[in-house]
Design brief:
By secondary structure, the chain is an all-alpha fold. It contains six helices and no strands. The protein is elongated, with a radius of gyration of 32 Å.
């Protein structure tokens, strides 16, 4: 590392420089052994452990999302559809129905916010906007 290089350049005594190199190598070896869990390093050990840890974390998140212990192709899609539709099994059209319902609920909430009414009648939005702009609450007239 850069710090070790500066320390080596600053070391006037060859024994101090050799000691710094030894300490650095020992620290690197300890870090590798701690990471891999092995007493001896072989080429590729770091990559294997990194990939394994990544895969374990990914599988854990997939399990949490899907609720299934063992992943099978399509499980993520099935879980996503189930979460979106609120149904355990899919029937053609469920996604469209759920989407329409969500849009309708959002639109209804927006209309209620503008008009102040639970039920919409033609002209309510215009009356609500005019009342907001002018400060006159004429929505009930």
């Amino acid at each position: 590392s850069l710090v070790v290089r500066f320390e080596l350049m600053a070391a006037k005594d060859p024994k101090v420089a050799a000691g710094l190199i030894t300490e650095t190598l020992e620290a690197a070896k300890k870090g590798i052994m701690d990471f891999t869990g092995k007493d001896e390093y072989r080429f590729g050990d770091i990559t294997k452990v990194a990939v394994s840890k990544f895969a374990e974390g990914t599988m854990s998140r997939i399990h949490e999302y899907t609720g299934k212990e063992k992943y099978e192709f399509g499980d993520i899609t099935k879980a996503t559809v189930s979460k979106f539709t609120g149904k355990d099994s899919y029937v053609f059209g469920d996604i469209t129905k759920a989407a329409a319902s969500k849009v309708s609920n959002a639109a209804g909430a927006a209309v209620k916010q503008i008009t102040g009414k639970d039920d919409y009648q033609f002209g309510d939005i215009t009356k609500g906007i005019v009342a907001t702009i002018t400060g006159n609450d004429r929505r009930d007239r």
